[in-house]
Design brief:
By secondary structure, the protein is an alpha+beta fold. The chain folds into 2 domains: 4-97; 104-189, Umud Fragment, subunit A. It is built from 5 helices and 7 strands. Strands 1-2-7-3-4-5-6 form a 7-stranded antiparallel beta sheet. A hairpin with a 5-residue loop joins strand 3 (138-142) and strand 4.
Length: 191
Amino acid sequence: MRDPIDRYLEDVLCHADLAAGDERNVRAELLEHLHELAASAETSNPMEIYIMLKDRFGNPKCVGRAIAAAKGRMRTFFKKAARKLPLRVGIALILAFAVRYAVAEEFYVAGNGVTPVIPLGSRVLVYKLARSFNAGDVVVYRIADGVNRVGIIVRQSSSGGWLIERNAGTAKECHDIPREEIVGWVFLNTR
């Protein structure tokens, strides 16, 4: 059978629900008191020692709750939350980068390629998982040297790509862009 002092101490700390540092301090302090009480016991039966500790020191549930109240429930809550914060921030950053890499990404519109639909200086959010497009959809696509541009889909071309229209000063220009070079569909802009 387990040591009655350890058993009693675990019952108390279970009901106290303390932060790790506070739990270590309370455990060390209680162990000293419990060993003194157990030394004064007239029996060596573990069950009788446990019952004696409950009678002399108090019900583990009541003692644990009293310790929790003395330490402060809000203080304990914030200590536990602070311990978990780095993990939560790390998970949030990983998720944010994963979403940006695979699902949606923000782009800055530096030119007048699709004015007045999206004005110069806007920021757009692009859905990268889009696989089918319709005429009139605004998309972001790549040209040489990894430069991204914004354009409006006119129709599908005979080569399997898409004809994309952009404003070029006073005239409109049309480009045949392969599907692989289309980053995604613009579903949100800031203006």
